[in-house]
Amino acid sequence: MYQQILVAVDGSETSARALDAALQLARDAGAKLQPLFVVDVPMLVYDTPGSDLTHARNALLERGENVIKDAVARMKRAGVQGTPRIVETDLAGDDIAHCILRAANDFKACLVVMGTHGRRGFQRLVLGSVAERFLRISQCPVLMIPAHSAKPSANGAQTVESIKEPS
C-alpha cells in the first residue's frame, strides 16, 4: 500500500476534506504524511508599480504557517507521523501545480491527495484549476476529493470523485 502520502492544503474547506481523506489513508496504511502549502504571490502584485512584494509574501507565509499548524494538530490527534512543508513558486514560470509535483518527487510520494472545486465553464476558464493541471503532469497516483459533491458514508468517510494512476 502507500508509504508516503502528500496532501496539498490551502486552508479551504475543500483542502480540509482532502486532509481528512489523507489522514484516514495514512492511519490505515501506517504511511507518513506530508501536508504541503504552496505560497504563490499573484503576478498582479508584481505588475503594480510601487507594490511592496514583501507584505504580500509575508501575509501568504503567515497563512501557510497557520494552515500547516492546523494540519500538524490534526495529524497528532489521528496518530499520523510526517513532516509538513511550505514551498514557494518563483517568477521563472513556476506555478502551483509544478511546485506540488516537485515536492511530491522530493518526498518520494506514493500518492498525492488534493481537493478539487469542480468548477465548470467560464469560472474554470478564468480561474483555472490547480488540481487539473497537477493531474495532467503527475507521475504518481492522485486522489481527488470533491468540494461539494462529497457525501459522507455510514462511517463518516468521504466518497471519492476520482483517482488517477499514471500511464
Automatic annotation (TrEMBL):
KW GTP-binding (keyword) present: no
Alphabetic keyword roster: Plasmid
Pfam families named in the record: Usp
Listed CDD domains: USP-like (cd00293)
SUPFAM superfamilies (UniProt xref): Adenine nucleotide alpha hydrolases-like
Domain UspA positions: 1-146
Keyword Cytoplasm attached: no
Alphabetical list of InterPro entries matching this protein: Rossmann-like_a/b/a_fold, Universal_stress_UspA, UspA
Similarity field: Belongs to the universal stress protein A family.
Protein name stated in the entry: Universal stress protein UspA
Protein species of origin: Paraburkholderia phytofirmans OLGA172
